[in-house]
Amino acid sequence: MTTTALQSLAPPLLKKVECCLDALSGLGSVVVAFSGGVDSTVLLALAVGALGAEKVLAAVGVSPSLPAAEREAARQLARTIGAALMEIETTEMHDPNFVANPPRRCFHCKKALLTRLLDVARRGGLAAVVVGANADDTGDFRPGLEAAAELGVAHPLLAAGLTKADVRAVARALGLPNWDKPAAACLASRIPYGSEVTAERLGRIERAEALLHELGFATCRVRDHDPVARVEVPAGEIERAVTVRGRIVPALKELGWRFVTLDLQGFRSGAMNEVL
Questions:
Q1: Starting from the edge strand earliest in sequence, which strands make up the sheet with 84-89, in order?
Q2: Which of 15-24, 174-183, 231-240 has the lowest mean pLDDT?
Q3: Which of 172, 134, 183, 127 has its CA nearest to residue 156?
Q4: Are strands 30-33 and 128-130 parallel, antiparallel or unpaired?
Q5: Looking at residues 50-67, what average pLDDT do you find?
Q6: What's the whole-number average pLDDT of the chain?
Q7: Three-class SS string for the chain?
Q8: Is-contact 30 47, C-beta < 8 A?
Q9: What pTM value is reported for the model?
């Protein structure tokens, strides 16, 4: 993955990217917390460009919270970029602080994962762990950022002032195939705070959203208000969702929900935070 294509970026954005590349170069070698989303993919590509593939390791946390399709996509992206990939089985499903699903659930999950990555870095002789948060992430409730700060983990994209739109523009300039991929949060984010997170619930959410993807809804969420499934699709696609309800409703009922609703407000990232 070459960074020469970055010269096509507008000067203000190129300056941000150069700041990010300088920061990565200064670290010497890194473990990238990698999910396969556009943010961590751009960070991985820039790290390889700044340091060389031999000084970069992509590490993805594997658990019931990560859909199988996302895991495979992460593998393919790492191969495309030319980075080594390590898959780490995480243990959040054994952590009562995660399973109880408090508002700070992400803090406990992220801290456990990043602690593991810091150990991987130490054992592998890599100097730092970096995560792909961007400047827009500071505008939402993100306890995972607190965990990273507590552990001294760097946020090169955020530090350089790169917004989500900036990251997508960089991904497109680099020819990354997921430059326009919709955001894909952890499956546990579909379960209301205070309601227990279980592997069974995560599995049926994954299968329900896979069905919606097959029906052409690239951006969607199935929120598990057991016994109710609350389906979110973009506001402009609500009418189409109604026309295919004959396929959605029986499929979701077969997965275990008694009632299936369509949220008329439409999809919005972080909808579960609205109760906080």
A1: 84-89, 56-62, 30-33, 128-130
A2: 174-183
A3: 134
A4: parallel
A5: 96
A6: 94
A7: CCCHHHHHCCHHHHHHHHHHHHHHHHHCCEEEECCCCHHHHHHHHHHHHHHCHHHEEEEEEECCCCCHHHHHHHHHHHHHHCCEEEEEECCHHHCHHHHCCCCCHHHHHHHHHHHHHHHHHHHHCCCEEECCCCHHHHHCCCHHHHHHHHHCCECHHHHCCCCHHHHHHHHHHCCCCCCCCCCCCCHHHHCCCCCCCCHHHHHHHHHHHHHHHHCCCCCCEEEEECCEEEEECCHHHHHHHHHCHHHHHHHHHHCCCCEEEECCCCCCCCHHHHHC
A8: yes
A9: 0.92
Residue 138 banded pLDDT, cuts 50, 70, 90? confident
Please give the average per-residue pLDDT across 145-160, as a whole number. 94
* Structure-token pair, residue 111: 């801290």
Q: Which amino acid is at 102?
A: P
The contacts of residue 81 (CB under 8 Å, 6+ apart) are 1, 41, 44, 45, 48, 58, 176
**Domains of the chain with CATH codes:** 4-173 (3.40.50.620), 198-267 (3.30.300)
